[in-house]
Amino acid sequence: MTGHDIQLLIITVCSILLLIFFIVSKLRLHPFVALLVVSVGAGLASGLGIDKLAKSIEEGAGSTLGNVGLTVALGVMLGKLLADSGASDRIASVILRGSTRRSLPWLMAAAAFIIGIPMFFEVGLIILLPLIFTVARKLEQHGGTKGSPYILVGVPVIAALATMHGMVPPHPGPLISVSAFHANLGLTMIYGFICAIPSIIIAGPVYAKFLAPRMTVRPDNDLLDQYTAEKEVKEEAQPIPFFTALVAILLPVVMMLIRALAGIFLPEKSMANKVAEFIGEPVIAMLIGLIAAMILLGYARGADTKKLRDSFGSSLKSIAGILLIIAGGGAFGQVLKDSNVGDAIVHLTAGLHFSAIALGWLVAALLSVSTGSATVGIVGSTSLLAPLAADPSINTALLVVAIGSGSLFFNYANHAGFWLVKESFGMSMGETFKTITIVQSIVGLVGLAMALLLNLIVG
């Protein structure tokens, strides 16, 4: 490890500390501005170069908005339609009717577990926000819940979505490792589920029960009203059937799951696989889901089309700030990536003598924390450990799971998901740290412990 590597690591740590200072100190900079200022400072300090620095910021912000922003915008419009039509309220009522306050976090975790199988974290959260807010608001109105019902309901969802995103194929990250290590896909999925379940339980319902009474988090009223608005209906209008509401919210999930299964079972160049890849792309799936919901919940029920259009327009206003902050997080992560912080992490771990599973977890965690991308953590650690996969004594399926769980560890200020959770739930930096950062750290540590335990059992 060189002096330059150490310098890059110090710059990364100082950048994150400076970002926190800008946001929580008396300066009270808007997170979007703070992220851009810190990105410029980190790039200059690391010697990235003025010409490359500007391009890095633009590329990071643009790619993040392209990957996440469009999907978030479509998801918010879908969420607004679900709320206005009464579909979210219908599903929430069914969930509440069949549950107690004690079982509710478990039911929400189970729902997110199923939805999270094919979905990226950010996409799954946007789809489930109307349900989270509607259920939590009903709890809030009925009283009897200490602390924040939004934390009680939201934390299990965050835990389940994050766990499935990083640890279980057919998500792209784990599939990259499966391909590079030539691991058995079926066995990897089995191990992934075995490791994921206790991770979700501890980081989700168990941690939510501990945390919720100690927090008073409540989303911004505008966003809350948008997702939980009760529909003004005529007396003769029929309520949304539960099955129709379920189809409207699950259609994008089904299309993404079809894409994932097609990638596993269909020939890569077949027309069926290409079609499945297209409709299962998050942006396309959300677009098709939104159009289908407009037909099922709007046009087919005689909705006022002008009100429908105006409703979509108003829904986008409330997330403009969120999208900019997510873009700023993407810019910060890209600057760190282009500054070769990842290479410094690789050099740091090169001389460590750990087991392959522990080393894979550590490298993925360090890369993810430093670059703000779980995917970078998975790809980087997979590349580093690929030569070890030839050793028959190494359980490559468990190595894939360990790397995925490491990539989830300590999701913080340079991750887009951190800002999405923060702004969606209206939390401070400290409150967001207590939720998504701690939740994903628990998931990462439990995932590692389970991978090591299974490695001892199966040899």
Automatic annotation (TrEMBL):
Entry keyword set: Cell membrane, Membrane, Transmembrane, Transmembrane helix, Transport
Keyword Transmembrane helix: yes
Domain of life: Bacteria
Subcellular location per the Swiss-Prot or TrEMBL entry: Cell membrane
Pfam families attached to this UniProt entry: GntP_permease
Entry membrane topology: Multi-pass membrane protein
Chief location: membrane
Annotated transmembrane regions: 6-25, 32-50, 106-136, 148-168, 188-208, 240-266, 278-300, 312-332, 344-367, 396-414, 435-458
Protein family per UniProt: Belongs to the GntP permease family.
PANTHER family noted in UniProt: GNT FAMILY GLUCONATE TRANSPORTER, HIGH-AFFINITY GLUCONATE TRANSPORTER
Protein name: GntP family permease
